[in-house]
């Protein structure tokens, strides 16, 4: 089993619920996005990043985006998973995020992110736990 960090930002609690389920499935460690940096990233074999869609389907701009942007030079070869909730649109923010992470050289689990419309129901929570378990076993 890999040592997994779960790093997320949540405004409404939906992405936080997803993060808790991912961490449960991975037997991982939740790291607040404000505490994640390149040195901390190096302590983990794999990382699950969670951020909801904001604005015009983009990552949250004041805390999550700056943290993720700072890590981009350290993602080459890193095993990651991406997840988040949304309330509108069709998930374009996640497709853009996956493409961006792959462009940084990250290995994205399943080649796609896990998205949930609004609050995660039991099926979505189970999918999050599976995502965490798959990431830890990868």
User: SSE order, as H and E?
Assistant: EHEHEHEHEEH
Model regions low in confidence, pLDDT < 50 over at least 5 residues: none
Determine the fraction of residues in helical runs and give it as a percent range. 25-40%
| Major sheet description | 6 strands, parallel
Structural class: alpha/beta
Number of helices: 5
Q: Care to count the β-strands?
A: 6
Note the gap between the termini.
8 Å
**Overall 3D geometry?**
globular
What percent of residues are in strands?
15-25%
Mean pLDDT: 96
Rg over CA atoms:
13 Å
Q: Would you give an account of this structure?
A:
Helix 3 (64-71) links the parallel strand 3 (46-50) and strand 4 (79-86). This protein has 5 helices and 6 strands; from the N terminus they run E-H-E-H-E-H-E-H-E-E-H. The chain starts with a strand and ends with a helix. Strands 1, 2, 3, 4, 5 and 6 form a 6-stranded parallel β-sheet that branches. It is α/β, with parallel strands linked by helices. Helices cover 38% and strands 20% of the residues. It is globular and about 35 Å long. The model has no long low-confidence stretch (mean pLDDT 96). The longest helix is centred in the last third of the chain and has 16 residues, at 122-137. Helix 1 crosses helix 5.
